[in-house]
Amino acid sequence: MQRTDGGGTPARASLRAVPPQSCEPPQHPQRPEIGDSWARLRRLGLDPERGRPARHLRPAELEETRRATGLEQVLPVLRSALFGPGEPAPVVLAVADPKARVLWLETDRRLRRDADAIGFEPGALWSEDEVGTNGIGLAARTARPSTVHSAEHYLRSHRGWTCVGVPVRDPRTGRLAGVIDLSGPATGDHPYLRQLALTAARLAETELRAGHLEALHRLRTVAVPLLARFGGPALVVDGAGWTAAATGVPGPPRLAPPPGDWGSGGVHWVPTLGECAVEPLADGWLVRPAAPRPAALAEQAGAAAVELDLRRPADPELRVRGSAGAWSHSPSPRHAELLLLLALHRDGLSAARLAEALFADPARTVTVRAELSRLRRHLGALLEARPYRLAARAEVAVLGPDDPYDLLPGSAAPAVREVRAALAGGALRLPGRSGGAQPPASSSANSSSLGSSSGAPPSGTTV
């Protein structure tokens, strides 16, 4: 991340061409995600001239982290797609874990020297908090593709680079598996770099998905002979809940494991199946329903606790507990936005108001209804309509990050930006937090406008 000229000028000399604008934003119009990142780093007190002392994984820690991510299997396909045999690499390829730790870095000798000059190397912690606004750190924090060009970097020493970071999702869980980053000299706009990085990330996810299917097939070869000996209904699923084989019961594509996994087995309540005996089997679980398949989610609306955990910016989690049991789900970024708005507005919101809150366009109701339809597959009767709302008898809590500006940081929805500002200003508390009462479903505060020009903070627990 460093060169500014196409010749052999040393990296440090090339930095003299960068205008002397320390922590001031670039003079051209700043994109919202860059402005938010710079503001956050100013609050953290990061010096744009000096940064922080570099932090690196020890060699043994680096090898252990590489094995834990499972991303090594994507390297061959990335190398073959990005680098031709015997040709000089036009970019730097970096693969990082969800904490923005650089695990692998590949390029030619020339660019590697420039990368080494700023500490961009395997084992380096490349988060925003450590090295300022950059493609890897921004993508890891927001879980969205992020481009950072030249003077958009917070640290002066990085402004000779353009970098594009794209999150890679684990196909088993939907959680962030890592970040693919492509970086090159900031000598031009590099219009191809973002599309190339997006393609590389999709290739990586395809490779991870193929690996998962192979693992399911291996589990299936163990499961099928075993299930043939059972007289009753049973399923075999992998560690993430994906069905490898089933007998006597329609096997859903995936079971929702309870929060904290199934431990060492025992009796657990499983959505759509009811109470089940669960025991470990090979690399998965043997699941035997103890009763006929109930309409489980419908009865949860009577007494349920819904918890939306947004403390990990890149990995929101929805947890539901009821009299029958508990389950968890990793919502998509859009579903997390919808759940947050519905948790803050217990009286409910129309499709038009949700469209205005998310897109600043009340006409985009078709998109909103489609997303809510998908969300209802996970919530069942806990999600009601006309207007859209969470069931009134359900207790709803939202767990937010310590820094309000880390609340769904990848979201550009007008209403979410309003929520961040209201939390930071002390005008709003998230429902269910200590010191804040659960807002009643009939609260008049819930009638405040969303995404409107009035700038009124969203409802929730006001202070």
UniProtKB/TrEMBL annotation:
Pfam families: GAF (PF01590). Residues 1-37, 428-463 are annotated as: Disordered. Gene3D superfamilies: 3.30.450.40. InterPro entries: GAF, GAF-like_dom_sf. Residues 103-207 form the GAF domain. It comes from the Bacteria. This is GAF domain-containing protein.
